[in-house]
Structures are given as C-alpha cells and as structure tokens.
Design brief:
- The complex is a heterodimer of chains A (224) and B (219).
- With 224 residues, chain A is an all-alpha fold.
- Chain A has a single domain, classed as Orthogonal Bundle (MetI-like fold), CATH 1.10.3720.
- In chain A, 78% of the residues lie in helices and 0% in strands.
- Chain A has eight helices and no strands.
- In chain A, α1 crosses α4, α1 runs antiparallel to α6 and α7 packs antiparallel against α8.
- Chain A starts with 13 loop residues before the first helix and ends with a helix.
- Chain B is mainly α and 219 residues long.
- Helix content of chain B is 79%, strand content 0%.
- In chain B, α1 packs across α4, α1 runs parallel beside α8 and α7 packs antiparallel against α8.
- The longest helix of chain B is centred in the first third of the chain and has 41 residues.
- The radius of gyration of chain B is 21 Å and the shape is flat.
- Classes of the chains: A mainly alpha (224), B mainly alpha (219).
- At the A-B interface, α3, α6, α7 and α8 of A face α2, α3, α6, α7 and α8 of B.
C-alpha cells in the first residue's frame, strides 16, 4: 500500500487549522445567505411588478449576475474596486459583497417563481370565500409560497458554501490555502501529503453540504 | 480606457477563450454521456450499479469543482495517476457535470406517468415504439430546462481552471492585471469574452425551452 500522506493530518494542529480554514468559507457563505434571503424576497416581489421599466431593470440585473461566473464577479469587485474607486477592500469583504449580490439574484428568482406558480384560482377562490386581500395573502398565498421556497433556499445555502471555495483565488486564507500551506510545510517528511490533505478537504465539504442537501430533498418531498 | 492596450492583448484573450470553450465542451459532452448512463441505471433500478451511481451523484453534487480539480490534479499523481492540466479540466468537469445531467434526465424520465406506457401498449405499440414515440419525446421536453441550466452552469464553472495552471480567461486577466495594472481594461475584456461564450448558449436555450414547452401531455 502506497503512502497516502494521511499522517500529516494528525501532526500538530493541522486538522484544527483545516477546520478553521473551512469555517472562514462557511462563515462568509452564512453571512451572505443571511443578507441575501431578505433582499431576495424583496427583489422577487418587486419582479412580479407590471411596470415595464422595473421589469427590465431587474431582468438585466438578474441575467447579468446569473450569466457571469462568480469568479469573474469576485475579480470585478476585488480588483475593480481598487482601480475604479481607489479603495482597497479585503478579500473577505469582496467575497461577502459578491455572494450577497449573487445570492440576492438567485433568491429573487426563486421567490418570483414561487409567487407566479400560485394558480390564479387560489386568489379567486379566496375572494369567493369573502377573504380580504390581506387575509388571502396571510392564510392562502404566503403559506404555499413558503413551502415551495424553504427547500430551494436551503439548497441555495449548499450552493453558496460550494461556491465560496472560489475565494482562494482572490487571496482569502480559507481551507484550500491552509491545505496548501500544510502540504508545503511537510513536503520533505511526507511527500505524499497532497493526497491525504486534499482528500480530507473534499470530505469536509461533503460532510457539510450533504446533510443540508438531504434536508432540502426531504422537505421538497414532504411539501412538494 | 486604453484601447491600444485592449487591441494589443485581444489575441491573448481569444486564445484563452478558445481553450475555455474547447475544454468546456469536451467536459460537457462527457458529462452528458455519464448523465445518460447514470439516468438509465437509476430509472431501471439496476441492482448494485444503482448504489454506486447514487454515491457518485451525492459526492459530485456536494463538493465544489475547485476541490475536485485539486484532488484530481495534485492528489491523484501521488498514487500513480499522473494527469495533464487539460485532461484534469475535462475529467473534473465531466465528474461534476455527470451527476447534474443524470438528475436532469432522470427527473425527465420519472415525470412521465406509467399510464402513458400502459396506454401506448394497450394501443398495440411495441415497447420500443412506446419509448421512441411516447415516452422519450415527453421526457426530453421535460428535461430541457434543467439540461440548458446545467450546460450554462458547467460553462461558468470552467472559470476555476486557472487554479490548475490552465491558461484560460481568468488566468489571462489576472496575469495582465498583475503585469501592467490595467485593471479596468483587463476586467472589461474578461466580461466581454464570457458574454460572447455564454450569451448565445443562454439565448439558444430559452428559444429551445419555449419551442419544446408544448410537447408535454396535458400541461
């Protein structure tokens, strides 16, 4: 059996350092999700507006954000802010900005989709039952939209966590960077460390994302 | 805005875009093949293979492409599987995309209710005819939106290839920013080239979706 370089993980605080790096990525995604969800709900409601100008503006925002790779957005904010605005923002802040802008667009689209997927007869039946518009929303429309939205928003969290792996590319010290440092530091004593360490990073991401997407799947089935 | 700079380095971007497109499409083509095979295994509930496919799908969908690429490129050579950057890009994209495509095709197949098959058989169609004329057209039209979304998603994911030293668009942009500090110009070209690659796919996709929407029965 070849040396898989797993011993490196148990040296010193290496495992703790990896987990610390992972936490940086997870923290950035949680902050971004927390800001994106309320903003996305707002955007989604605005997008159902009949006003052609509002429709066009939100549409362009959505399409641009969704068609650009997130890494390009990170580059634009991280490098562009320095050259265009003359301000120097940290990689972490750039990441939160980009993932919030992106998450808002994604969430907005989900909310819009959920809102327009409520059939018209729901409104009409509520009116026939003499519910006021406010009561229609509170008792009929919102509970249905929320049921559709919760699994999708949970999925957005896993997508966000997976996408935050990109912050390595703008110099944020997260789990992959720590992994590189550990491999580099142990290059003499265990030349095969790359295998064990990268396998661990892969598994760590899996351990975080898998339960969350399982939960989303289960809720989707239950309420679908 | 320094247009001379843009003009001078345009060929560099063209070369990089070509690399992105080449590896992107090769990876997507492989992903489609993997996706079809996995969807068939899941749909017909083939023993043992079904388990393997499920595990593969969960791992591939719940880990980021960047980490998958790092694993293929830096870790696999340690156990005797050397990979070139290009092969790694294609393999990584196929590994990631295979599971997304599988889910798209499987949900298409499963959306067709058994009564369709039963009705087709009772009308005297052979099983192969029923598949060809009744099930497949509906399944395909159901999976088109997910399929198009996956293609765009995978093309976007190619942006991380610079991490395994492939000279793609991101690599070129970062290089030019680092060398000449022409940030605005470099970023503008980056955005324009990604739009050139992705917009046609997105537009074509929405046309396709609109045309196939009415192929389903009863919706």
């Amino acid at each position: 059996m070849p040396d898989l370089g797993l011993d490196v993980l148990f040296k010193g605080k290496n495992m703790l350092r990896l987990l610390g790096g992972l936490w940086v990525a997870v923290k950035i995604s949680l902050i971004s999700v927390a800001i994106s969800i309320p903003l996305g709900i707002l955007l989604g409601i605005i997008m159902t507006s009949k006003n052609p100008i509002i429709k066009a503006v939100t549409r362009v925002y959505l399409e641009f954000i969704r068609i650009m790779p997130q890494l390009v957005l990170l580059f634009i904010v991280f490098f562009g802010s320095t050259s265009a605005l003359g301000i120097n923002i940290s990689g972490e802040l750039a990441s939160v900005i980009v993932f919030t802008v992106w998450g808002t667009a994604e969430m907005g689209d989900l909310v819009r989709g959920a809102l327009i997927s409520i059939p018209k007869h729901q409104y009409e039946s509520s009116a026939a039952l003499a519910l006021t518009p406010a009561k229609t929303y509170i008792y009929v429309i919102i509970p249905q939209t929320v049921r559709r939205l919760i699994p999708l928003s949970i999925n957005l969290i896993t997508r966000m966590i997976k996408t935050t792996s990109l912050i390595l590319m703008i110099g944020v010290v997260e789990v992959l960077k720590v992994a590189q440092q550990i491999i580099e530091a142990n290059r003499m004593s265990s030349p095969n460390a790359a295998f064990g360490v990268y396998l661990t990073v892969l598994l760590l991401y899996f351990i975080i994302c898998w339960p969350i997407s399982m939960l989303a799947k289960r809720l989707e089935k239950k309420w679908g | 805005m320094n247009w001379d700079f843009i003009w001078k380095y345009l060929p560099l971007y063209e070369k990089a875009a070509l690399l992105t497109v080449k590896i992107g499409w090769a990876g997507i083509a492989l992903a489609i093949i993997i996706g079809i095979l996995c969807a068939i295994v899941l749909y017909f509930r083939i023993a043992v293979l079904r388990r393997i496919v499920s595990v593969y799908i969960e791992i591939s969908r719940n880990t980021p492409l960047l980490i998958q690429l790092f694993f293929i490129y830096y870790a696999l050579p340690k156990i005797g599987v050397p990979v070139s950057p290009e092969a790694c890009g294609v393999a990584g994209l196929a590994f990631l995309g295979g599971s997304y495509m599988a889910e798209a095709f499987r949900s298409g197949l499963e959306a067709i209710e058994p009564i369709q098959m039963e009705s087709a058989l009772s009308l005297g169609l052979e099983k192969s005819q029923a598949l060809r004329y009744v099930i497949m057209p509906q399944a395909v039209s159901v999976s088109v939106p997910a399929f198009v979304a996956n293609v765009i998603f995978l093309l976007k994911e190619t942006s991380v290839f610079s991490a395994i030293s492939l000279m793609d668009l991101m690599f070129t942009a970062k290089d030019l920013i680092g060398l000449y500090y022409k940030t605005t110009e470099s970023l503008l070209m980056l955005v324009v080239f990604y739009l050139i690659i992705l917009l046609p796919v997105s537009i074509l996709g929405s046309i396709l979706e609109r045309r196939l929407r009415h192929a389903g029965f009863g919706s």
